[in-house]
């Protein structure tokens, strides 16, 4: 079993981006500028946005954090996005999800200029990704997983990949990317979800499992074939009095019992999470490069 070290891989990607940004700056070009919108006081969202903003500054990007109270109106939020769409200096816009129930995530996502949609959630980018078009912005988590598979040169061609979870931001794009005629890709993909009846049998046929469910330790050892590659997307905070923070992060895979059966597995934390941020930064760089 080998760990797929997302922390190290993400660092290598970020180091290389830092050099690219410095080269842009040295040749008088603008540096990438990411605008992040955070609504309300969701602890996990605050943490995610803070680490994105911090990463921007570490690699020489400009970032702007725009915070709204929980009760901000949908119109006010849409007006801000429109202003960011028009702002020539802003290359990438992300709106941290989830949004409060009174705001339509669909309307918000569709209001972002697809050329600045560095989260890759806009239907235009999802369509381009599905068609395998190179100029698509790919949703950061599945893109990060593809970069991780690429980094470790994991053979995916002809393999059976089972993706568990069909969310628009993780499971579904992951299933499309793995099935595309690309490398990594060219898998035969089965997409499982909450209504799948024979999940264990399907998982046992998988050469690659991507777990994006949001239920801690859902994937057990008896669901995994010897030698499978297991990618754990799940991050659930569970209370743990023994930790200074009072909590710990748990993935969707029963790591202790599953890991010995695998050829490769991602840890939680330190697997998919850092890759998501690295992929977002790659998208933001690309948005800047496309526009300037
Ligand atoms: P989601 O709640 O939108 O989707 C969960 C999916 O799991 C659904 O499609 C559902 O059909 C499926 N599911 C639920 N119960 C199931 C069951 N019993 N059997 C089979 N499928 C079942 O979640 P999401 O946004 O895709 O996130 C999934 C997990 O990944 C969460 O823990 C989230 O925190 C984490 N996440 C991590 C990152 C990262 O950067 N590492 C990014 C995004 C999400």
UniProtKB/TrEMBL annotation:
<keyword id="KW-0554">One-carbon metabolism</keyword>
<dbReference type="Pfam" id="PF00763">
    <property type="entry name" value="THF_DHG_CYH"/>
</dbReference>
<dbReference type="GO" id="GO:0004488">
    <property type="term" value="F:methylenetetrahydrofolate dehydrogenase (NADP+) activity"/>
</dbReference>
<feature type="domain" description="Tetrahydrofolate dehydrogenase/cyclohydrolase NAD(P)-binding">
    <location>
        <begin position="139"/>
        <end position="290"/>
    </location>
</feature>
<feature type="binding site">
    <location>
        <begin position="165"/>
        <end position="167"/>
    </location>
    <ligand>
        <name>NADP(+)</name>
    </ligand>
</feature>
<dbReference type="InterPro" id="IPR046346">
    <property type="entry name" value="Aminoacid_DH-like_N_sf"/>
</dbReference>
<keyword id="KW-0368">Histidine biosynthesis</keyword>
<dbReference type="GO" id="GO:0009086">
    <property type="term" value="P:methionine biosynthetic process"/>
</dbReference>
<keyword id="KW-0486">Methionine biosynthesis</keyword>
<dbReference type="InterPro" id="IPR000672">
    <property type="entry name" value="THF_DH/CycHdrlase"/>
</dbReference>
<comment type="similarity">
    <text>Belongs to the tetrahydrofolate dehydrogenase/cyclohydrolase family.</text>
</comment>
<dbReference type="GO" id="GO:0000105">
    <property type="term" value="P:L-histidine biosynthetic process"/>
</dbReference>
<protein>
    <recommendedName>
        <fullName>Bifunctional protein FolD</fullName>
        <ecNumber>1.5.1.5</ecNumber>
        <ecNumber>3.5.4.9</ecNumber>
    </recommendedName>
</protein>
<feature type="domain" description="Tetrahydrofolate dehydrogenase/cyclohydrolase catalytic">
    <location>
        <begin position="4"/>
        <end position="119"/>
    </location>
</feature>
<comment type="subunit">
    <text>Homodimer.</text>
</comment>
<keyword id="KW-0560">Oxidoreductase</keyword>
<comment type="pathway">
    <text>One-carbon metabolism; tetrahydrofolate interconversion.</text>
</comment>
<keyword id="KW-0658">Purine biosynthesis</keyword>
<dbReference type="Pfam" id="PF02882">
    <property type="entry name" value="THF_DHG_CYH_C"/>
</dbReference>
<keyword id="KW-0028">Amino-acid biosynthesis</keyword>
<dbReference type="InterPro" id="IPR036291">
    <property type="entry name" value="NAD(P)-bd_dom_sf"/>
</dbReference>
<comment type="function">
    <text>Catalyzes the oxidation of 5,10-methylenetetrahydrofolate to 5,10-methenyltetrahydrofolate and then the hydrolysis of 5,10-methenyltetrahydrofolate to 10-formyltetrahydrofolate.</text>
</comment>
<feature type="binding site">
    <location>
        <position position="235"/>
    </location>
    <ligand>
        <name>NADP(+)</name>
    </ligand>
</feature>
<dbReference type="GO" id="GO:0035999">
    <property type="term" value="P:tetrahydrofolate interconversion"/>
</dbReference>
<keyword id="KW-0378">Hydrolase</keyword>
<dbReference type="GO" id="GO:0004477">
    <property type="term" value="F:methenyltetrahydrofolate cyclohydrolase activity"/>
</dbReference>
<dbReference type="InterPro" id="IPR020630">
    <property type="entry name" value="THF_DH/CycHdrlase_cat_dom"/>
</dbReference>
<keyword id="KW-0521">NADP</keyword>
<dbReference type="GO" id="GO:0006164">
    <property type="term" value="P:purine nucleotide biosynthetic process"/>
</dbReference>
<dbReference type="InterPro" id="IPR020867">
    <property type="entry name" value="THF_DH/CycHdrlase_CS"/>
</dbReference>
<dbReference type="GO" id="GO:0005829">
    <property type="term" value="C:cytosol"/>
</dbReference>
<dbReference type="InterPro" id="IPR020631">
    <property type="entry name" value="THF_DH/CycHdrlase_NAD-bd_dom"/>
</dbReference>
<keyword id="KW-0511">Multifunctional enzyme</keyword>
């Amino acid at each position: 079993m080998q760990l797929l070290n997302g922390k190290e891989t993400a660092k290598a990607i970020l180091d290389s981006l830092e050099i690219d940004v410095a080269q842009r700056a040295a040749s008088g070009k603008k540096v990438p500028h990411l605008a992040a919108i955070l609504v309300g006081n969701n602890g996990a969202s605050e943490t995610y946005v803070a680490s994105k903003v911090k990463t921007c500054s570490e690699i020489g990007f400009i970032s702007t954090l725009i915070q709204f109270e929980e009760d901000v109106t949908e119109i006010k939020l849409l007006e801000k996005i429109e202003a960011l769409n028009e702002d020539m200096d802003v290359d990438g816009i992300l709106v941290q999800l989830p949004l409060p129930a009174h705001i339509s995530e669909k309307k918000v996502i569709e209001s972002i200029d697809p050329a600045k949609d560095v989260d890759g959630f806009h239907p235009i980018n999802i369509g381009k990704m599905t068609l395998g078009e190179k100029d698509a912005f790919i949703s950061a988590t599945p893109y990060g997983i593809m970069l991780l598979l690429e980094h470790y040169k994991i053979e995916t061609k002809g393999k059976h990949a089972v993706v568990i979870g069909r969310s628009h931001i993780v499971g579904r794009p992951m299933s499309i990317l793995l099935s595309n005629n690309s490398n990594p890709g060219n898998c035969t993909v089965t997409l499982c979800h909450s209504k799948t009846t024979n999940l264990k049998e399907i998982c046992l046929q998988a050469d690659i499992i991507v777990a994006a469910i949001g239920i801690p330790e859902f994937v057990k050892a008896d669901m995994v074939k010897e030698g499978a590659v297991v990618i754990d997307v799940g991050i659930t905070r569970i209370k743990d009095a023994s930790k200074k923070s009072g909590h710990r992060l748990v993935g969707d895979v029963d790591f202790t019992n599953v890991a010995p059966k695998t050829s490769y597995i991602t840890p939680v934390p330190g697997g998919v999470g850092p890759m998501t941020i690295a992929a977002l930064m790659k998208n933001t760089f690309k948005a800047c490069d496309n526009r300037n």
